[in-house]
């Protein structure tokens, strides 16, 4: 029987490295998915996961048992992802990136042999979606990713973001509206 998160946290607080390793194994894949969707970069996502667990380990004594460990660790990962995206945006404002040819695994072409016109159209959709996601505010992007990619409830999104469920729902709604407006021109071309 698997050790529950709370029991693992209690044991990790007592210095049990295996208990913390269990938490890492249990949550690292989900954190990577979240970080990748937030940063759009595999290397950055790996850094986010590593830094998230490092920060969690250092702050384990401050973990409040009233919250779930999963929500707490998601919040750490979300905050660090946002920090990373903001710092990258500041750097890119200073320096125009010359290396735009690096492939984004999330946006890569689907497997199989699609027809060239379909491949061109899907590439265009991916570009528009990536550009539209970049136009969302940090709160909107985070709320949208947590709700629609991670499948979190609005209440969990609110807890992860540190806001009321109504504010989380509003952020998701605004993100959906902005994405819908940004992608609307493509709907007419897909017919």
Structure at a glance:
This protein is mainly alpha-helical. Helix content is about 75%, strand content about 0%. The protein folds into two domains: about 1-95, RNA polymerase sigma factor, region 2, helix turn helix motif (Rna Polymerase Sigma Factor, Chain: A, Orthogonal Bundle), CATH 1.10.1740.10; about 115-190, Arc Repressor Mutant, subunit A.
Describe this structure in words.
The structure is a single chain. The termini are far apart. This protein has two domains: 1-93, Rna Polymerase Sigma Factor, Chain: A (Orthogonal Bundle); 115-191, Arc Repressor Mutant, subunit A (Orthogonal Bundle). α6 runs antiparallel to α7 (154-161) and α6 packs across α8. By secondary structure, the protein is an all-alpha fold. Residues 95-103 and 105-110 have low confidence and may be disordered. The relative contact order is 0.10. The chain is built from eight helices and no strands.
